[in-house]
Amino acid sequence: MFELVATAESVKQAEQLVDAGIDKLYIGEDDFGLRLPASFTTEEIAEITEIAHNKGKKVCVAVNAIMHNDRIKTVIPYLKELEKITVDEITVGDPGVIHLMKKNDIKLSYIYDAQTMVTSANQINFWVKRGAKGAVLAREIPYEELEKMAKQVTIPLEILVYGATCIHQSLRPLVENYVNFTEQKTKTEKERGLFLSEKKDPDTHYSVYEDQNGTHIFATDDVNLLPYLEKLVEVGLTTWKLDGVFTRGDDFVKIAHIFAQAKQAFKEKCWSEELMNELQEKLLSLHPKERTLDAGFFTMDSSDVK
Amino acid sequence: MRTITKKPEVLAPAGTLGKLKTAIRYGADAVYIGGNAFSLRRRAGNFTIDEMKEGIAFAKEHNAKIYVAANMVTHENDAKGAGEFFRSVRDIGIDAVIVSDPALIEICATEAEGLPIHLSTQASATNYETLNFWKEEGLERVVLAREVGMDEIKEIRRKTDVELEVFIHGAMCISYSGRCVLSNHMSMRDANRGGCSQSCRWKYDLFEVDGENDRQSLLGGEPTEDFSMSAVDMSMIHHIPDLVEAGVESLKIEGRMKSIHYVSTVSNVYREAIDTYCKDPDNYKFNPAWEEELWKVAQRELATGFYYGTPDENQQLFGKRRKIPVYRFIGQVLDYDEETGIATIEQRNNFGIGDEVEFYGPGFTHHYQKVEQMWDEKGEPIDRAPHPLMKFKMKVDAPVQPYDMMRKKK
């Protein structure tokens, strides 16, 4: 079964994404979810859920933050609210949330999402035994490993096919500390568009921003697996995520539509190189000019990574 | 007079068998080591099963414990042989394994029943419900994330009864441990499988994009200071009462890659400070000599991490670095003759007559003296001890013991 998952930055965009052919919207609030394009109130989540459900689509809410005591206290009321709203799923990365759901009889389905820490089939099956209904794969997994993993896992494995890759999360305000030291002032939130570059490799471009979960740093290249979708389909990895944290507005909706067309072609068994090239060209014209794309670890050999 | 009988354990790093013995002699209640597989410090000297056996025999004699770090985050096939590995460390008498990967936790729990499991700091455990989760999974102890503050630790202690371990000294990841793959993306070395290239300590420029889509340095022109994510090191020596009163079971010192000089010095200091506090907490006085001692093996500035608030720019390595005097480890005492006041010493670094040197030993013993008389093994007077590991005799001003160390300011 194919499933296209996409982040949404507004109620309006959520609706557009559903119309563009997205099956599941991925949204949330920054206090509980990590690196979302927008932080939504529970009212907004309810509104988006209603829109999605009316069109037969799903909503998954991000509850994948690393939680400290203060936040773990507020997570149960939040989850109860989400249950009332009848969201379809949540992502979870902190085992404390899993523990609390069981204790409080919260019936929400959860997808295990501990970001960099989800790298093998056995890990995922550990969480399956503890109730996970899906898992989000780390970005650092070469295809030859994905192939092996897919064979050993029965729940859907969500793989990023388009968007930015976070490579570092610190609880320290790293940008603020730097500008304080150099006696500057700047805003540090994601809209500010700050990025880092290695001294010894000026072509690198690591987006960086801060929020209540700390400082987030992203890889130079955003992921684009459009040219490799066939290989994913071959091994049964057909839950595809699109992350719009750095691709905004209509362009992201159009890119979502590109993947929806691809999905449709696979369903109808008419995926072709020609179509792929056509869609790829369109995608490249929509992707933000200042950001580069590649396939990340997907095209690497396991032995490339030491 | 109030005394504290439930002392927290001093847990020291041991990259080699020699360091293991040193740490225990210098007061560590427990040491953690790496096996030949599944450990996150590929370049630290890791132990074979035979070396572990020897370590265990030594630790038992001294009533100390040994934990084995198996804290890598496995990819497909990496976990091969893990069951056998856990069974063999259990069967030779290792006290616990330190694990972060749930796949390895499961293998250990099902295939090496009875071997206690500690959750590694790599798993970023930051709240009491997470600890309750792992407790129900049968884990004995959780090493808290370094981002957890003192007040949070106290609350965690009240709300869970799984054992708590916290880092109190050494180098720190600037990220949530486990949630950083800078090294993977920048140098194709997997930080979570022992390959970390410490990309966080590199130099970077910070840019913004202007209206024309061109990059502009945020600080304009040539910034005077590069962007870096390099953290200073941690030392909690000023806060021993807080740590003991918070009720944590284990106080961990970072550094499986560090030297015998470092391991002996740091273990010695924390042993002494904790014993001093627990003996008479109400009349406890901080001894400045403890801190001085820690500076002798420090590589970076020292601070308290997240214990007392979010670390600001002063806890990162910006600007001019503090000048830290370097001390060299120059010898280890092999023997001492009380009647003549002459010690037999094995050399570690070149020194000679006229040098001001320091002797230190377990139990926080110290003496300083000038080197005045030295003899080689045949009893011939010598001026210097120039050869690595050469044995020689020298006159000492105060009694010393085997395994006491000698150091000298560079």
UniProtKB/TrEMBL annotation, chain A:
<protein>
    <submittedName>
        <fullName>U32 family peptidase</fullName>
    </submittedName>
</protein>
<dbReference type="Pfam" id="PF01136">
    <property type="entry name" value="Peptidase_U32"/>
</dbReference>
<dbReference type="InterPro" id="IPR051454">
    <property type="entry name" value="RNA/ubiquinone_mod_enzymes"/>
</dbReference>
<dbReference type="InterPro" id="IPR001539">
    <property type="entry name" value="Peptidase_U32"/>
</dbReference>
From TrEMBL, chain B:
<keyword id="KW-0378">Hydrolase</keyword>
<dbReference type="InterPro" id="IPR051454">
    <property type="entry name" value="RNA/ubiquinone_mod_enzymes"/>
</dbReference>
<dbReference type="GO" id="GO:0006508">
    <property type="term" value="P:proteolysis"/>
</dbReference>
<dbReference type="InterPro" id="IPR032525">
    <property type="entry name" value="Peptidase_U32_C"/>
</dbReference>
<dbReference type="InterPro" id="IPR001539">
    <property type="entry name" value="Peptidase_U32"/>
</dbReference>
<keyword id="KW-0645">Protease</keyword>
<dbReference type="GO" id="GO:0008233">
    <property type="term" value="F:peptidase activity"/>
</dbReference>
<dbReference type="Pfam" id="PF01136">
    <property type="entry name" value="Peptidase_U32"/>
</dbReference>
<comment type="similarity">
    <text>Belongs to the peptidase U32 family.</text>
</comment>
<protein>
    <submittedName>
        <fullName>U32 family peptidase</fullName>
    </submittedName>
</protein>
<dbReference type="Pfam" id="PF16325">
    <property type="entry name" value="Peptidase_U32_C"/>
</dbReference>
<feature type="domain" description="Peptidase family U32 C-terminal">
    <location>
        <begin position="327"/>
        <end position="407"/>
    </location>
</feature>
